[in-house]
């Protein structure tokens, strides 16, 4: 240690800063002095270090560095010094400061940062010691314990204030953390809505204010305009039959919560009421769970006219493009009709409640009579295909169950039936909708935004409500797969086993052209990666989907029925009742444990998880294959919408077209995950974590085949390709059938909207090739025979059906 008036550790420039700070009050009137000459003397360092020769340069550098910093720091922080050292204005310290700084020459100092001072503010106190080396009087006698305590207390106060501030910030952070979690997802949703609205307004502006043709993107003439220039005009009246969910519904009577909505759309249109009063909206869309008709005090009816299904929502066309093209060749309200019906209820109930079938029969008869007795061209879409198939049996059946039109009514009034996106044999998607209210799009939405479908965002459990409401719609049961294992396969076989797959949506260039007999390019689009069992339409785990059928357990339906319901109320975590609340934890485990279901056994599964819906289904629909179509039981209306349990009308000249899209991966079977050990609001979910190898058929817990994104080709094309082709027991009069496939081509730019050559299930309604075919048939023109791009003929040959 070196004794130079104060105790200074010579190994640290920081303590020298303390010395200079304590001498601040004698600093203002400093005078230049030969201090460095003093420092240069070995005698000085002999007082400070044991060895002057070894310490001279080190101490000189040390003091120079310290004084350089301290001078500039004190000079720039006078306020801090005055506030911090009032207790150090003692005569002894002040005198020593003057004495010490008179030796110094500070001309070499320059300003610098005050960080060095603040860095060690907690050490600002002095410890007087005896100074014998400089001949100064000891200042130990003048040490004041009170002054020291004041300084220490002041430092502690500053540190305590800082600690209190940090604690307060920490408490505020913890308090706000919970709120931030609640609002984070909502904030993200608001941003997404903002982006969507901005994009929508941008598209709205471009649509209305940009010219119809943009350089580099020439406008495409509509099929109606092209045919009009060719001199083709409408000849046959046209009836449009919408499918499920695309027709508008309006309120005629409702509960108090629906006041002000009389004759306003509850389904279709703007859907503003969904956000205003969602639970009330769902209540009015529901049907009675026992009868399948209106609940007490509620009347919701289909919108009438072409506006019923021209647009599903603002800007989302369904029939609008086809209607516009029909108008270009001369169609209007006199020879164009939209056969709107309530798509929620069973087909026969549309007649019981609304007389919809009778009104359709009368409309066709009037259009036939007022248009020169030209037969009508009927254009059904999706589920509308099944609805019109039911109508053809109803119209010829005797009263009271039928319309009493007689056996020749269809042959007299109908020229052609152009089935778009036909669902003759159902779709596997209907199974997942009933089981868990999911399909591919809903499952992916649940995975990407899990909170959006839960009560945290919309205020109610969305999927649970959708499941409850959709199970009151009998129309959903009409879309369940028909034909059993003969059509859809069993645990070890299915017609699609020979079909290769690729999950990439292929465009028109991926297929061979119409005149190219080499289909090698087309087969490249579907490359097999691993063996699959499409016949296992529902599997609980990937192992159940792939292991040998002998290792799978079977469902004992009677055992489950006898197991009864659950008394464990804690097992349910839903705010809304579903039929899963009637199942015990053990029943859910038995349903899912190491099991795979074919189309035949999946009906047993649905009878367990949705008993009321399936009970109503058994009264209105059938999904089997008739052994003897002359059996009197097939005269019942429950068989009329199943093409495998009914005959086509005796109309040898009535043309039947199957028009559908191909080239889009379409859901065929599902791998589910079960949670019978947790709460059971919906205990089954599509397992999105399951992936196949490479670009195979398995993606996100779903197996895909060729189709139109909703309906596999086996359902859309089999009846026209084989079931009704030529004279069969299902087509005894030999009505001609045609398969017209439309290969998918995604939009090339935003200017194409949803695509003029798209073949997706709904977007195909704007496909220019399909529209041209319909217009030519309606005008009495020929469009040729089959146009096939898929493997529908091969698949049909693999189906061993008695014809």
From TrEMBL:
Keyword line: Membrane, Transmembrane, Transmembrane helix
Protein name, as recorded: Phospholipid:diacylglycerol acyltransferase 2
The gene coding this protein: 103497986
One Pfam family from the record: LCAT
InterPro entries in alphabetical order: AB_hydrolase_fold, LACT/PDAT_acylTrfase
UniProt keyword annotation of Nucleus present: no
Transmembrane segments: 6-27, 189-210
């Amino acid at each position: 240690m070196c004794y130079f008036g104060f105790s200074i550790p010579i190994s640290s420039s920081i303590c020298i800063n303390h010395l200079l700070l304590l001498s601040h009050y004698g600093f203002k009137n400093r005078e230049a002095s030969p201090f460095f000459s003093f420092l240069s003397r070995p005698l000085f360092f002999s007082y400070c270090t044991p060895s002057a020769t070894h310490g001279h340069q080190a101490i000189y550098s040390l003091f120079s560095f310290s004084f350089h910093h301290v001078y500039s720091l004190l000079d720039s922080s006078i306020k801090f010094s005055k506030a911090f050292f009032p207790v150090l204005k003692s005569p002894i310290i002040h005198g020593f400061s003057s004495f010490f700084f008179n030796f110094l020459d500070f001309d070499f100092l320059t300003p610098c940062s005050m960080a060095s001072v603040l860095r060690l503010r907690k050490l600002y106190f002095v410890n007087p010691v005896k100074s014998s080396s400089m001949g100064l009087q000891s200042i130990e006698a003048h040490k004041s314990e009170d002054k020291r305590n004041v300084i220490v207390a002041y430092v502690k106060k500053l540190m305590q204030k800082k600690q209190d501030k940090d604690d307060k910030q920490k408490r505020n952070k913890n308090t706000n953390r919970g709120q931030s979690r609640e609002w984070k997802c909502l904030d993200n949703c608001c941003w997404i809505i903002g982006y969507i609205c901005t994009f929508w307004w941008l598209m709205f502006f471009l649509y209305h204010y940009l010219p119809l043709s943009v350089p580099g993107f020439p406008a495409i003439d509509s099929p109606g305009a092209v045919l009009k220039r060719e001199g083709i005009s409408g000849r046959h009246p046209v009836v449009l039959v919408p499918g499920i969910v695309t027709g508008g519904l309006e309120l005629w009577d409702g509960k108090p919560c629906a006041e002000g909505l009389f004759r306003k759309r509850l389904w279709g249109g703007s859907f503003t009421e969904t956000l205003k009063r969602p639970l009330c909206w769902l209540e009015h869309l529901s049907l009675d769970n026992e009868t399948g008709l209106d609940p007490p005090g509620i009347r919701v009816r289909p919108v009438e006219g072409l506006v019923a299904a021209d647009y599903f929502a603002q800007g989302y066309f369904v029939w609008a493009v086809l209607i516009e093209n029909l108008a270009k060749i001369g169609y209007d309200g006199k020879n164009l009709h939209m056969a709107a019906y309530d798509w929620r209820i069973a087909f026969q109930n549309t007649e019981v409640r609304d007389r919809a079938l009778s009104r359709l029969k009368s409309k066709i008869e009037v259009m036939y009579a007022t248009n020169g007795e030209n037969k009508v061209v009927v254009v059904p879409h999706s589920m509308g295909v099944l609805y019109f198939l039911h109508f053809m049996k109803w119209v010829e059946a005797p009263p009271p169950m039928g319309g009493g039109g007689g056996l020749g009514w269809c042959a007299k009034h109908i020229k052609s039936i152009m089935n778009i996106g036909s669902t003759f044999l159902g779709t596997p998607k209907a199974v997942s909708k009933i089981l868990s209210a999911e399909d591919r799009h809903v499952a992916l939405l649940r995975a990407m935004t899990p909170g959006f479908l839960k009560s945290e965002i919309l205020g109610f459990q969305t999927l649970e409500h959708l499941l409850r409401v959709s199970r009151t719609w009998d129309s959903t049961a009409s879309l369940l797969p028909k034909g059993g294992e003969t059509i859809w396969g069993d645990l070890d076989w299915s017609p699609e086993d020979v079909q290769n797959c690729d999950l990439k949506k292929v465009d028109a260039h991926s297929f061979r052209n119409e005149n190219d007999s080499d289909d090698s390019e087309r087969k490249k689009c579907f490359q097999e990666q691993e063996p699959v069992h499409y016949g296992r339409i529902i599997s609980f785990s990937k192992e159940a989907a792939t292991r040998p059928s002998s290792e799978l357990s079977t469902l004992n339906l009677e055992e489950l029925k006898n197991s009864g319901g659950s008394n464990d109320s804690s097992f349910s975590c839903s705010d809304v009742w579903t039929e899963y609340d009637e199942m015990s934890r053990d029943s859910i485990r038995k349903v899912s444990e190491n099991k795979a279901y074919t189309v035949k056994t999946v009906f047993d599964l649905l009878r367990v998880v949705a008993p009321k819906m399936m009970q109503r289904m058994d009264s209105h629909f059938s999904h089997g294959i008739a052994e003897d179509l002359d059996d009197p039981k097939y005269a019942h209306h429950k068989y009329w919408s199943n093409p495998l349990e009914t005959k086509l009308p005796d109309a040898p000249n009535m043309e039947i077209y199957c028009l559908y899209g191909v080239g889009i991966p379409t859901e065929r079977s599902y791998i589910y995950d079960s949670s019978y050990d947790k709460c059971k609001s919906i205990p089954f979910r599509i397992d999105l974590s399951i992936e196949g190898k490479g670009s195979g058929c398995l993606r996100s817990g779903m197996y895909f085949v060729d189709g139109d994104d909703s309906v596999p080709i086996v359902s859309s094309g089999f009846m026209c390709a084989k079931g009704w082709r030529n004279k069969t027991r299902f087509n005894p009069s030999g009505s001609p059938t045609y398969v017209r496939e439309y290969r998918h081509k995604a939009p090339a730019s935003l200017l194409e909207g949803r695509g003029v050559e798209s073949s997706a299930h709904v977007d195909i309604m704007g496909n220019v090739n399909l529209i041209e075919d319909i217009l030519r048939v309606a005008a009495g023109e020929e469009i040729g025979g089959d146009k096939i791009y898929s493997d529908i003929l091969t698949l049909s040959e693999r189906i061993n059906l008695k014809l």
